[in-house]
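Folding Query — how this chain folds
Tokens — whole-number codes for backbone shape
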Amino acid sequence: MTPDFIPPAKPIIGDDERAAVDRVLRSGMVAQGPEVAAFESEFAAHFVEGRETVAVNSGTSGLHLGLLAAGVGPGDEVIVPSFTFAATGNSVALTGATPVFVDIEPETFTLDPAAVEAAISSRTRGILPVHLYGHPARLRELSALVEKHGVALYEDAAQAHGSSLDGRPVGTWGEFAMFSLYPTKNMTSGEGGMVTLADAATARRVRLLRNQGMEKQYENELVGFNARMTDLHAAIGRVQLTKVDGWTARRQANAAFLDQHLRGVGVPSVAAGAVHVYHQYTIRVPEERDGFVTALRDEHQVGSGVYYPIPNHRLRSLAHFAPGVDLPETERAAREVVSLPVHPSLSQNDLERIVAAVNAVAGAGA
């Protein structure tokens, strides 16, 4: 008998979330309303020490509006990693600013502070690290660069709910941060994002931008967007918020088991003082990565993902911002990374199957 396929990700939506949606439907208020306000307050208290928090309709909207509210626009440069999802570079470009792509350091797949400093120019408005896979970026060093050069720090925390460095949560280091609530993230609202902000004035600007530029109906103060979160989505998010810590602990336990038992591949590093929340458990396969992925799927019924096979600076949509850019660690990561299942729905049998599959394929040379 062929074993069941182990998916690389598995959103968890249960009866509690369904009941919350039904409650909102019965209330008759399904657009942005009291559920959104409650979700913002609860998310802020849970993850970012009570910082100003604004709910939006997607993580990408959160980055875009956060940058606009921070004053980023034409003529500015924002330093970003190329090894990330395209939304990071897209959001900078959508403001009219220029994304400046720099290399990562190999241990954590996050921005290399030395590469960042080399890229700072008179046009640099800010630095936008990504806490990739749930591991915090090099925030100590990046914060020092911000202070030294008089630029801003922003955070792409799309994958890092609950991650921290030196006991300080991600989402509290920069002028603003974005958390994604897409279905495969560590928690979800079905779709959505959260923007956490250091000051009330910038938070108010994000609120205006998400709602057609108005705080009071028909009194538009600036040109804005429709980037609101619905109460339906917020109701799901509020339920998930009560469960995410347990799911994170499960992810960390699953990662520890994989760390202990995998052979022949490069397992994830965790920096000193960092809390990794393992949105992805990403290994390195130095040779024949694509054959490795195919063998896991076809021979062992184990799913995996490659995040990300094409760096931003080589995408057709963004390459014109990076003519002649050479990012060797980014290119190496794009060739080697494989993300294995680590989600909280895995059983002990699933974990043992993943280990057996990876070790067998790695031992056979894929």
The chain has a mean pLDDT of 97. The first helix runs from residue 15 to 27.
